[in-house]
Design a protein that fits this description.
Elements: H1 2-10, H2 15-27, H3 32-39, H4 43-55, E1 59-62, E2 69-72, H5 74-77, H6 80-89
Helix pairs in contact: 1-2, 3-4
Length: about 90
């Protein structure tokens, strides 16, 4: 799991954005439009990062089309605090 987290969240320029998306979803499952509003970024940017998170099974989706809602995957939902601690130790977040 640590290698996956490092690959998706720590070793790329997009890691901080993906971590921000995960934090939003931890608090409240949302669609891409809502995420883009909260982060004040382009919808297409959110779509790109959501795709990466889906491909790596860090989030799951419910529904289809524009109204798809994203949730943390069961894989990380219960371990989110450990994930944040790992990223702090690696210097990804403060």
């Amino acid at each position: 799991m640590e290698r996956l987290l490092w690959y998706v969240l720590g070793a790329t320029r997009g890691g901080p954005m993906r971590l921000s998306i995960l934090k939003i979803l931890k608090e409240n499952p949302s669609n891409a439009h809502r995420i883009s509003e909260v982060l004040s970024v382009n919808y297409r940017t959110v779509e790109h990062h959501v795709k990466v998170l889906l491909e790596n099974e860090l989030i799951v989706q419910q529904g289809n089309g524009y109204g798809k809602v994203y949730f943390l995957s069961p894989r990380i939902e219960d371990e989110f605090d450990l994930i944040e601690e790992f990223l702090k130790r690696k210097g990804v977040v403060k």
